[in-house]
Amino acid sequence: MTNQQKQFTSAISLILLLTGGLAAISWLQTGSERTAPTPEEVRQGAPSADVLPAAGEPGEALFGYDPHPEEQREFLRSLPKPTIREAGPGLFQAIGDPQEVLLYRALYKAYEKKYGNAWVVGRQGIGDCVSFGWAHGADIHLAIMYLRGDSADFKLVATESIYGGSRVEARGVRTGGWSDGSYGAAAAKWVREWGLVFRDEYDGVDLTTYSSRRAKDWGYYGNGGQGDHGKLDNEAKKHPVRDVALVTNFDEAAAAIASGYPVPVCSGQGFTSRRDADGFARAAGSWPHCMCFIGVRHGDRPGLLCLNSWGPSWIDGPKYPDDMPDGSFWVDRNTVNRMLAGRDSYCVSGYGGFPFQEINHADWVLADPVGDTETHFALVP
User: Fold this and answer.
1) pTM of the model
2) Per mean pLDDT, which range of 62-76, 252-266, 356-370 is the poorest?
3) Which CATH number fits domain 69-365: 3.30.450.20, 3.30.365.10, 3.90.70.10, 3.40.30.10?
4) How many CB atoms lie under 10 A from the CB of residue 50?
5) What are the angstrom distances between the C-alpha of 206 and each of 158, 195, 199, 232, 236?
């Protein structure tokens, strides 16, 4: 082997080490002719033409939160009502004693009604956690809209679309590069100004199942991949998320969740992979990661329920309640405050603003929303 070949091999090895030990992702054809990556593209993390991704073991750390502070501030300045206290003041009205709210039960019910089996959390295959956190938020909110009759249908959101759209279209760049990652404001801009593509079959593209190779490809070329020519951008625009709003602390997140608005959370906070007797995971280490807050409890130990995207078995230990999703854990109030203080976590709404609504786990909605109830990302016939 020549010195030049040795240097090239060393560069590839370093890339694989820095990306968490994943093998390079294979080159994906999405309906257009393309050439294999150049050596320079491979050094930047481009898919290899002949190496498949490693499957990985449950619990393998797959991150992908890549903050861009100035772009995050610019997006906030673009919103007419950037914070949840401005966008949803009715959420903070006095409603008596705070209630425990478990939004995942809407997802369970809607998924079983639509697909005929039980929902199981998926597992990301590259550093596309931001798309999973945001898809979980949209899935659960759409499930609530579906169960209350505000949407005629329910389908899961395609994470690859959020990933590509947040990395390219939302940032106004030609390509997103081959390294992984995105951030909350970019995902918020994508779903608000473009919208959502669902796990369905489109012209020449089957999105019914997740593909890490497609995510890698679209992360470079944008939503739809190379040769799409804006077709899936137009599909996304049929289902824009009506509103997003910044959430900065536990009380704000709890108020949003209590009315059915999940909170995709981007932070650097890590956790142990074992829940304690109350279902909480201890804060430990650093994770540049995105997950989703989907439940709230108060009482002696207030916390938010956090849904991860590493499959059902990366974490074990006791649950509260018994039906909480596999792969999820509770987060203590003080840790939640640290996570949200990074100012890159938003709640999502398919309504005009964030109207207050009273959630009940049996009937789901006891009161109609207040104010403008126009829906935008609901599925209609």
Assistant:
1) 0.83
2) 356-370
3) 3.90.70.10
4) 9
5) 10, 18, 8, 12, 15
